[in-house]
């Protein structure tokens, strides 16, 4: 069990990440690649990723075990500002911190010669590792980035609504079921028993597409607190037919032809920063059934993501839908 202890100041400093974190997604996707579970969501992604992987991943496998602890320096806080910014921070990691965190990988078991060599060389092998990491990211994450962004945007919209409706207390209570808000403690199913005290630093909530079953946090309690948790939008918005995170450009092209027309242009614009089906019908001046039908077509086309929240559903515009609106690509 993981228990995160809040003070009143911490509640005031709870915040949602502004975008998916490319380093967290890359590291966690490497877990999913070696995991045979969730075949409906990740099965085809695994097949496609493995077919693109033609580079060495031995060092990745050494530093990112299939389960349990992996070094905090692999996911620097700067990663929330983009892939390149995160890589720059990783490149500048201090050798003494790297050594300290790598020692934890060998805790409880004899350290392999390769890991000891990596740990003792003062960071000289880090460029090789980063080359592997870049190649893996290009194969496993980059082709699906638009889909990942859409899922995280939908998650942010749902949590943002909870925050507006009831403040930080409602936001924390609205998180996925493996996270339980029992003020002033957020509890989480976790492989080890651990308490994290925020001490007025607040908490960054980072939804993740590739995070599954349990949330993840940094091992070092002195680092800026972050909780990476599974985005609830994953399964609700996965493409039909077991495609999981597969890019669905062909499907979108087939469906985009249905979008020509004044009403759907109005409906797409009416979604704005997020709308339930009832709100969408009211804003667009159409019936509830019509709003639901239009949202379904646009969801199939990749323009809208739908996330269930309680007894209602929340529609949000994807990056593709936003691009069409900004470019005037939807007929009026």
What does this structure look like?
The radius of gyration is 21 Å and the shape is globular. The protein starts with a strand and ends in a 5-residue tail after the last helix. The strands form 3 sheets. Strands 3-4-1-5 form a 4-stranded mixed β-sheet, with helices on one face. A 4-stranded mixed β-sheet has the order 2-6-8-7. The chain has helices at 8-12, 22-33, 39-52, 58-63, 83-91, 95-105, 113-120, 126-140, 145-173, 233-236, 249-256, 262-271, 277-284, 288-300, 319-327; strands spanning 2-5, 14-16, 179-182, 185-188, 194-197, 203-208, 216-217, 226-230, 275-276, 304-309, 312-317. With 332 residues, it is an alpha/beta fold. A hairpin with a 2-residue loop joins strand 10 and strand 11. The chain has 15 helices and 11 strands. Helix 12 (262-271) packs across helix 13 (277-284) and helix 13 crosses helix 14.
Q: What is the terminal-to-terminal distance?
A: 53 Å
Structural class, from helix and strand content?
Answer: alpha/beta
Helical proportion?
A: 40-55%
- SS element count, helices: 15
Instruction: Please compute the radius of gyration using only Cα atoms.
Output: 21 Å
- Sketch the topology as an H/E string, one letter per element: EHEHHHHHHHHEEEEEEHHHEHHEEH
Poorly predicted regions are 233-257, 328-332
Question: How confident overall, as mean pLDDT?
Answer: 84
Q: Which band does the percent of strand residues land in?
A: 5-15%
Spatially, the strands of the biggest sheet line up as 3-4-1-5
